[in-house]
Write a structure and sequence with these properties.
single chain; 275 residues; alpha/beta; Nucleotidyltransferase, domain 5; three-stranded antiparallel β-sheet; 44% helix
Length: 275
């Protein structure tokens, strides 16, 4: 551990703990005292890190509103407002999405080089916005990007983002017949990439849209573009990380599904608590 003030590694742990049970440390170089949450996103938060992490996990994963979450925890004797949930999501969701995005960089093998790309619609400030999404042949997430327009610039920006997120250049890309895709693929991914335009070949991606669409339906749209972009990316990254299947139509037993969910949910909570 490094000192939150001077960055020195000469940090020693003190015997006493904070009122909430967090370990305390002291830097031998600058004399500054700190604890496990110092310099983190949850520093000076009123509530324990594990409670905040669980709230953010449930917020992104399940079809719950801000007030639903505050009422659920009220039954456990933990009182906070719906605005606290909004604030915790704004702080922790980007950190979670960034870490999950880093973990899947370069993964996917040969099937990860066959992309299916499409866009769906959602409302932001009462106006329609375009959510570009891509998955590979096995249904794993490639990337997601929210755009205010559906044009050449947006398509090029999405392919640049997808290439950076995946860490590889695809061999084949399947899209609908929108006119911006052929040129965007040639300029960003290269002329060697095979481009297919077929509606029925993207049925898997059309079905995959239902995850994010169903999740935001109870929210009745977004009031800002930044919050919509943050939520959609974080939701898709978490949904992909918790996905039990590694390929389409794979049979996963109930026991195996529960085991994978518990293990991966514990990893997500650890990421959120350490943010």
């Amino acid at each position: 551990m490094q000192c939150a003030g001077c960055g020195s590694a000469a940090v020693t742990e003190r015997p006493e703990r904070t009122a909430r049970g967090y370990r305390r440390f002291r830097c031998r170089d600058c004399g500054r005292q700190s604890n496990e949450r110092s310099a983190g996103l949850l520093n000076r938060a009123q509530y324990p890190s594990d409670v905040i992490a669980l709230v953010v996990l449930w917020r992104l994963r399940y079809r719950l509103t801000l007030r639903d979450l505050s009422e659920m925890f009220l039954q456990r004797g933990i009182a906070f407002s719906h605005e606290a949930v909004r604030d915790w999501e704004a702080k922790l969701a980007p950190a979670l999405a960034g870490e999950l995005r880093r973990r899947r960089h370069g993964r996917g093998g040969a099937h990860g080089r066959h992309w299916h790309v499409d866009e769906t619609y959602l409302k932001v400030r009462g106006r329609w916005a375009y959510l570009y999404r891509a998955i590979d042949r096995d249904g794993r997430l490639v990337d997601t990007m929210l755009s205010e327009r559906r044009d050449m610039a947006a398509a090029q920006a999405f392919f640049r983002s997808a290439k950076a997120a995946k860490g590889v250049t695809p061999e084949r890309v399947t899209t609908d017949g929108h006119g911006s895709y052929p040129r965007a693929i040639r300029t960003v991914l290269g002329r060697r990439v095979v481009h297919r335009t077929s509606a029925y070949r993207n049925n898997g991606l059309e079905q995959d849209h239902r995850g994010v669409k169903g999740r935001i339906r109870c929210m009745r749209g977004f009031k800002s573009f930044a919050s919509a972009e943050r939520f959609c990316r974080s939701h898709d990254e978490l949904h992909d990380f918790l996905r039990p299947r590694t390929r389409h139509n794979q049979l996963v037993s109930a026991r195996r599904r529960r085991l994978l969910h518990l293990r991966r949910a514990a990893d997500v909570l650890a990421i959120l608590e350490a943010a």
